[in-house]
Amino acid sequence: MSGTPSVENLARQLAVLEERMNTHQAEYESALDRLRADMALMKMDAATRDAELAKRDKVNIQWNIGLAVAMTTLIIGAIAIL
């Protein structure tokens, strides 16, 4: 092999490198698309979970208020009996 590469050889190497670059770029874009889709699913899951927790908190608060009213009524009733 001679010390000076030919223009055709350099052009072929450049074409191969460009194709590799395009392949890597496509892989990166595909990975980013998958990441974006996964993040969107995570956001939807978090929103659903937050809505369910808010419902449970509301029910728990209502239950606690009802329990407090019942306890207060029992205490006042017990005091009245005594």
How would you describe this protein?
- This protein is mainly alpha-helical and 82 residues long.
- The chain is 91% helix and 0% strand.
- It is built from 1 helix and no strands.
- It has one helix at 7-81.
- The longest helix is centred in the middle third of the chain and has 75 residues, at 7-81.
Question: Would you spell out the secondary-structure blueprint of this structure?
Answer:
Elements: H1 7-81
Overall radius of gyration: 35 Å
Q: Alpha-carbon distance between the termini?
A: 113 Å
Number of strands: 0
Residues in helix, %: over 70%
Structural class: mainly alpha
Strand content: under 5%
What is the element string, with H for helices and E for strands?
A: H
The coarse overall form would be rod-shaped
The low-pLDDT segments are none
Main β-sheet: number of strands, strand sense, barrel status?
none
Number of helices: 1
Give the rounded overall mean pLDDT.
92
Feature tags:
single chain, 82 residues, mainly alpha, 1 helix, 91% helix, rod-shaped
Summarize the structure.
This protein has 82 residues and is an all-alpha fold. It has one helix and no strands. It is rod-shaped and about 115 Å long.
